[in-house]
Amino acid sequence: MVEGSDSYLIRPNHQHKFKPTIVKEYIHEILRERLSGVLYDPESVPELTRSLAETVKDKVKNAGFDKYKLVVQVIIGEQRGQGVKMTSKCLWDADTDNYAADVFMNESLFCLVAVFGSYYY
Amino acid sequence: MEEYSSGDDGNFNSDEISILVKECIEGVIGGTDYNQNKINQWTASIVEHSLTHLVKLGRPFKYIVNCSVMQKSGAGLHTANSCYWDTTTDGSCTVRWENRTMYCVVSVFAVAM
User: Phi and psi dihedrals of B11, rounded to 5?
Assistant: First the structure.
């Protein structure tokens, strides 16, 4: 019995395409759940940033974007009225690759999460 | 018929990229102070120049370049990345730069094709 393999696919099936809107929803949910009411504390924030990155990565991985490599970036900063700007630029295949990002802010901190999905041919 | 050769490295070289990115940052915001009106232009420039130089290296990678600039105000900033990829061929490099009035953090992710 020959098993089908999908290594010949150079474009993802429409169902398996990286969907930014769905991923943005996931990010939004996770941020709301983990950061509502949290105050900026320099001792615990590094661990929180790392663990948020892991959580978002696991959630997106299990969402079924099988042939995608993922990069998740999380930035958390204290709110002190300063200016911040984050920009990204990517060199990839625009037909297959995409990204999703979301921001969460409360009185004492702000948090940016960006997820980039790159199709593995 | 031309044979595709994989070249000298199919692996990501972090040191070389880090030097390249540092030069790009210096070139754009080297002697300047934080200016809210110019910040959009600066971040776009840094990212654009970095990507252009990365492409010139001619390696078989897809690149994601991320740049964050923050004004110095005594506040703290933390970044973390989590990646799901092939650790033998893919890699990332983060460059931190600062001057009197601002911090700049640039991350480059390279994913093999």
Answer: -105, 160
In chain B, which residues have their Cβ closer than 8 Å to the Cβ of A69?
A: 83-86, 90, 111
Q: Domain segments of chain A: what residues?
A: 17-119
Q: Top-level CATH class of B14-112?
A: alpha beta
A66 touches chain B (CB under 8 A): no
Short-list B40, B46, B39, CA closest to B105: B46
pLDDT of residue B6: 46
Q: How is domain A17-119 classified at the CATH fold level?
A: Ribosomal protein S3 C-terminal domain (3.30.1140)
Report the pLDDT value the prediction gives residue A2, as an integer from 0 to 100: 56
Determine, for residues A82 and B40 on separate chains, whether the beta-carbon distance falls below 8 Å.
Answer: no
Tokens linked to B87: 């650790």
Which residues from chain A sit within 8 angstroms of residue B43, using beta carbons?
85-87
pTM across the whole model: 0.82
Q: What is the ipTM of this complex?
A: 0.76
